[in-house]
Automatic annotation (TrEMBL):
<keyword id="KW-0378">Hydrolase</keyword>
<protein>
    <submittedName>
        <fullName>Endonuclease domain-containing protein</fullName>
    </submittedName>
</protein>
<keyword id="KW-0255">Endonuclease</keyword>
<feature type="domain" description="DUF559">
    <location>
        <begin position="1"/>
        <end position="98"/>
    </location>
</feature>
<dbReference type="InterPro" id="IPR007569">
    <property type="entry name" value="DUF559"/>
</dbReference>
<dbReference type="GO" id="GO:0004519">
    <property type="term" value="F:endonuclease activity"/>
</dbReference>
<keyword id="KW-0540">Nuclease</keyword>
<dbReference type="InterPro" id="IPR011335">
    <property type="entry name" value="Restrct_endonuc-II-like"/>
</dbReference>
<dbReference type="Pfam" id="PF04480">
    <property type="entry name" value="DUF559"/>
</dbReference>
<dbReference type="InterPro" id="IPR047216">
    <property type="entry name" value="Endonuclease_DUF559_bact"/>
</dbReference>
Amino acid sequence: MRKDLQESEMRMWLELRAGRFCGIKFRRQKVIGKFIADFASNDPKLVVELDGDTHTGRDTYDAARSRHLEDQGYRVVRFMNSDVIGNMDGVLERLTEVVVDMGYSPLPTLSPEGERA
């Protein structure tokens, strides 16, 4: 496990940590079986993987890794580092679609005036 995060990992972690994304509690570098997932939640069972240049030519490995995580009951979503850095809104929108597709209800957007508005 690494202590130093890449820029894309730090940006994604800032969006996912402490229930900030749809109220879902994610863990960073979660051990699942023989693999370490970049980010994972237990409810819903979701793994978010970030792929960079180091994943070029590793399609077979990544597919086997995803299959193993799916066998553990997780849904695996992969994003390119460049997308996280250059299009975080699009990444979060896609991630929201996945969460809704899994049957998980994102937290409602609260009125800026508060609950009495």
